[in-house]
Amino acid sequence: MFNSYQTIQLKKDKSGVAYVTMNRPEVHNAFNAEMIAELTACYKKLNDDKDVHVIVLQANGRSFSAGADVHWMKSMAQASEEENKKDSEKLAALMRTINFNAKATIAKIQGLALGGGVGLACCCDLVVAENRAKFGLTETKLGLVPAVISPYVIDAIGTRKARRYFQTAEIFGAEQAKLIGIVSEVLADEDMDEWVENQLSLLKSTGPNAKEISKKLVMSVVGRTLPQQKKIDEYTTQVIAAVRVSVEGQKGLNAFLNKEKVSW
């Protein structure tokens, strides 16, 4: 176990598997600036680690990730558009770092996966969810939009379904998440570790370089290379920055922070 992180845990085994565990269970592993920075730094290091071939993303506690931390959201509400853009660029860098990571990536989901939590799942190659897990792209309930995560969610579920779930902000179960493409497999909690081990066995049986080239091949064929993604991120971060400081965005954020129901 490596203890240089405050909000995540990293463990590597001798077979080339790295386990990255989000460790803010008291807030359902909600994102704050520190967690975003630590996850980004961790995945960058693992990307360059020749001894690592697969990365498993998981979470301590009842939930995978409930999205944005309330204190982080408070800082959003008080920040300028320029400050919000710089802030959102950090989340964009995290999603980009995971999505374009050279290593095979697996996400293991329990409890809630909301907003950015869904984004993390969509950036991974394989996703297993506990059968009671709940998912949601809930940003529009707050007058916001799932801008930064949108490229990865749209990759996973397609444009038509994205138009539905981005606008309705509905909560849906693990089976629905599998049906629309967010999740690879849905299992009881006690069966998830076995599924992960089976996938690890399959991944270990294939050439590391071949896996990396295969991922790049998929990205290139669909027209989404890393430089192209950076251009897309420039647009998505501008969108969310403008929405956060808009009248509607401020209304939604303040209602959430004050635990009030917003009327649209």
UniProtKB/TrEMBL annotation:
InterPro entries: ClpP/crotonase-like_dom_sf (IPR029045), Enoyl-CoA_hydra/iso (IPR001753), Enoyl-CoA_hydra_C (IPR014748), Enoyl-CoA_Hydratase/Isomerase (IPR051683). Gene3D superfamilies: 2-enoyl-CoA Hydratase, Chain A, domain 1, Lyase 2-enoyl-coa Hydratase, Chain A, domain 2. SUPFAM superfamilies: ClpP/crotonase. Pfam families: ECH_1 (PF00378). GO terms for biological process: isoprenoid catabolic process. GO terms for molecular function: catalytic activity. Belongs to the enoyl-CoA hydratase/isomerase family. This is Methylglutaconyl-CoA hydratase. It comes from Marinicella litoralis.
